[in-house]
Amino acid sequence: MNTAIMQGSPPPASAQVTLANWREAPFSRWAFHHVREIVPTARIACDPANVAVLPESGSGEDVLDVAFTDPGGINWSIRNLLPESFTDSFIALRRGAPLLEWQGPHCAPGEPHIIFSVSKSLTACLTGVLVGDGMIDPDLPVTAYVPEATGSAYGDCTVRHVLDMSVGIEFEESYLDTTGAFEQYRRATGWNPAMDEAEAVGLRQFLTTLTRDGHAHGEMFHYVSPNSDMLGWIVERASGRRFSELFSDLIWKPLGAASNCYITLDRFGAPRSAGGMCVTASDLARFAEMMRRGGEANGRQIIPQNWVEDTTHAGSREAWMRGATSYMFPNGRYRSKWYQTGNERGAYCAIGIHGQWIYVDSVAEMVFVRLSSQPLPLDDPCDLRWLAAFDAVARQFA
């Protein structure tokens, strides 16, 4: 890491984090903890009078010493893997108590970290609360909530198709794209500089321009981040409230989160529900533990238990196998923005680019949270290595 990043008044140009470079190494290691200084955000408030206190963690030596072999045949320990994989923060809980809380020396304690597509999984859980309250019906068409979607790829699909990433949509999730549709999408979210401020398009306007591909809705798992931004629009339209306020009142405060969360906004105030949430590792661990407990936390049923059960056990196996990423979980499924690993332990997870994870193993009664600044958005060898690591630790403590 270049320790001069954002040091000095002002920092030299070579060490300045900007809207153009904030997701690139080495700038990302600073930027992922300071998103509010780069992109507009909305606060998702916690309740300081209702914090769910986590027990003190032990030394974590038992976890750090767990050894395993990755799919490439290389031997590792958790102790060696953490710094080698650009991990910023790592927490392992068993039955709600921390076994290990590890933080990189470059990280400021308690600073929210962007969780990228783990945001999708949190957004879907908020949707589940609204489904339980009768505000959203997953089987209704998207246009029942967002009539502006008429004529787009979303014009004849259901909310369930959006939840399960099975919309037949013409869009490629190409993170390194600099000239095509994904670059236009990033500009619309406010994550990249606008080419022409006078003609800048917002996120919601961009969503309505997306068109159908040759697949029927529901036929194939097709990972498309705009689907989850559309879900955020549906949530706001169905509830009549801003995403940030709704998430705070229905999930963050009842959960007993200790710190405020944040979500990035486009130039018109639309939330980046597909990837813009910024959360502390300990609060994300509280959320993960809530999922393990079937949606219950801090003495309350926050997410309906039947929604959690459906998320972790239902979903189309056929649609998943037709998708391009079935190699990661050959026996898996995808449901409501969560991945089911399909292993014999029924583990499931939420995954974000640059190395963000929630991993839940209910057999071991364990949850894991990892926040990272991996240089590449996608790094399959590293992701598969971490899947082996999570499984090794869970088996050690089961």
Summarize the model shown.
This protein has 398 residues and is an alpha+beta fold. Helix content is 31%, strand content 16%. Strand 2 and strand 3 form a beta hairpin.
Task: Give the topology.
Elements: H1 27-31, E1 41-44, H2 61-64, E2 67-69, E3 75-77, H3 78-84, E4 87-94, E5 97-103, E6 113-114, H4 118-132, H5 159-163, H6 181-189, H7 203-207, H8 225-239, H9 243-255, E7 261-264, E8 277-279, H10 281-292, E9 296-297, E10 300-301, H11 305-313, H12 317-322, E11 333-335, E12 338-340, E13 348-352, E14 356-361, E15 366-372, H13 380-397
Antiparallel strand pairs: 1-7, 2-3, 4-5, 4-15, 6-8, 7-8, 9-10, 11-12, 12-13, 13-14, 14-15
Describe, in plain words, how this protein is organized in 3D.
The chain is α+β, with helices and mostly antiparallel strands and 398 residues long. The chain has a domain at 32-132 and 228-397: Beta-lactamase. The chain has 13 helices and 15 strands. The strands form 4 sheets. Strands 5-4-15-14-13-12-11 form a 7-stranded antiparallel β-sheet, with helices on both faces. Strand 11 and strand 12 form a beta hairpin. It is globular and about 55 Å long.
